[in-house]
Automatic annotation (TrEMBL):
Residues 1-21 form the signal peptide. Pfam families: Cytochrom_C (PF00034). Residues 23-108, 116-207 form the Cytochrome c domain. This is C-type cytochrome. It is found in: Periplasm. Keywords: Electron transport, Heme, Iron, Metal-binding, Periplasm, Signal, Transport. Its main location: periplasm.
Length: 207
């Protein structure tokens, strides 16, 4: 709860801070050719281990690219290390990052019709589990899974279930630790494999 309060303070700070630099989506379209091999030309990845970037908050995408680049520059001491993305982000300039994220955020995400959605997924997302100290996911990611850009919480609705599953597992095992105040690690370490599977399938079904 304390970490959630800290996150809300970030929203207030962001609202009162000066406007940040903006990217050019048209310029970004010419810079995403390499990205498209995994993420698709419009940000709708056809490979479920890679995230859909279409419609994701630009500021969230910017943070991830900066973190990937930082990890490459520091040998993984800082940021978010990934064997593929850290190398891809390394040569990007700050303007490249702004343009690329402006393009992907302007695209519309494609959500496939979901079947056999576990009831547990909806239960954990909307209400958490008080007995295990699990906070409801919607407290940060919203009732519709669209997140909160100013607070740095990403859109999860319609994302590949397999990608969400991979990331929740990484957070649980501290293989990924670039989350705000360690909030995702705190939540994920309380989740079982069945919890993660159910949440991933539920989130992928949201439109």
């Amino acid at each position: 709860m304390k970490k959630l309060a800290l996150a809300l303070s970030v929203v207030i700070a962001a609202i009162s801070s000066p406007a940040i630099a903006e990217g050019n989506a048209e310029a970004g379209k010419t810079k995403i050719i390499v990205c498209s091999a995994c993420h698709g030309m419009d940000g709708n990845s056809m490979i479920d281990m890679y995230p859909k970037l279409a419609g994701q908050h630009a500021t969230y995408l910017q943070k991830q690219l900066h973190d990937f680049r930082s990890a490459a520059q520091t040998g993984g001491k800082d940021g978010r290390m990934d064997p593929i993305m850290s190398g891809m982000a390394m040569p990007l300039s700050d303007q490249d990052i702004l343009d690329i994220t402006a393009y992907f955020s302007s695209q519309a995400i494609q959500v496939a019709e979901a079947k056999d959605i576990p009831e547990l997924g909806a239960k954990l997302y909307k209400g958490g589990d008080v007995s295990r100290g699990i906070t409801a996911c919607m407290a940060c990611h919203g009732p519709d899974g669209k997140g909160a850009e100013l607070a740095g919480f990403p859109t999860l609705a319609g994302q590949h279930a397999n990608y969400i599953k991979i990331q929740l597992t990484k957070f649980r095992e501290a293989g990924r630790h670039n989350d705000l105040n360690g909030m995702m690690q705190d939540v994920a370490k309380k989740l079982s494999d069945s919890d993660i599977d159910a949440l991933s399938k539920y989130l992928s079904s949201l439109k």
